[in-house]
Write a structure and sequence with these properties.
The protein is an all-alpha fold and 187 residues long. It contains 6 helices and 2 strands. Strands 1-2 form a two-stranded parallel sheet. It is globular and about 50 Å long. It is a multi-pass membrane protein. Belongs to the CDP-alcohol phosphatidyltransferase class-I family. Its main location: membrane. This is CDP-diacylglycerol--glycerol-3-phosphate 3-phosphatidyltransferase.
């Protein structure tokens, strides 16, 4: 007969380990991030092949919204995992890159805006390589970076709305470009 340890004898989980699922793969936040990744090619298909702008806006808005949701659920359910820490920024970067390329092809955004964001991404990638070379890991996620990502993911559906709906161009365009440039500067 096994004896269950008394409450005082049970190990306490504190600090970083309290909110981590560690190496767990099958978690709800990881599933959400994986579904976000599947949304990237769907978005590009809707935008560039089917030219179904309303459906593309919906996919993009869901991708942007679930960016926040997966992190919130991970922290709330204590399911933060190493895989999730990799999937979430990967999904962010792929959504931003796919959106920029698709929008540039469709003339929703000028190539200069795309070039500026791509240059920033390459600079970050180079910085990470230098940090790794000298034995450092990636810097911790900072609220400024999360805010910039949020602004860009909020701006993109609004910019597509401005391009797709003639009556929405003035207002949606101003709001979308304000958010996009703010996100670029913060990034």
């Amino acid at each position: 007969m096994s004896r269950r340890p008394a409450r005082a004898e049970q190990p306490r989980v504190t600090g970083d380990a309290a909110g981590r699922a560690g190496d767990r793969v099958l978690t709800l936040p990881n599933l959400i991030s994986f579904v976000r990744l599947l949304g990237v090619p769907l978005f590009l298909y809707l935008l560039l092949v089917a030219r179904a702008d309303v459906a593309a806006i919906v996919v993009l808005a869901i991708g942007g919204t679930t960016d926040w949701v997966d992190g919130w659920i991970a922290r709330r359910l204590r399911q933060v995992s190493r895989l999730g820490e990799l999937l979430d920024p990967l999904a962010d970067r792929l959504y931003i890159l796919a959106t920029l390329v698709g929008f540039t092809v469709r003339d929703v955004v000028p190539w200069q805006f795309t070039a500026a964001l791509l240059a920033r991404e390459l600079l970050l990638l180079g910085s990470l390589a230098v940090l790794r070379r000298y034995g450092y890991g990636p810097p911790p996620v900072h609220y400024v970076g999360k805010t910039a990502t949020f602004l860009l993911l909020a701006a993109f559906p609004i910019l597509l709305l401005a391009a797709a709906v003639p009556g929405a161009t003035a207002v949606a365009g101003a709001i979308g470009w304000g958010l996009a440039w703010w996100g670029l500067v913060l990034y």
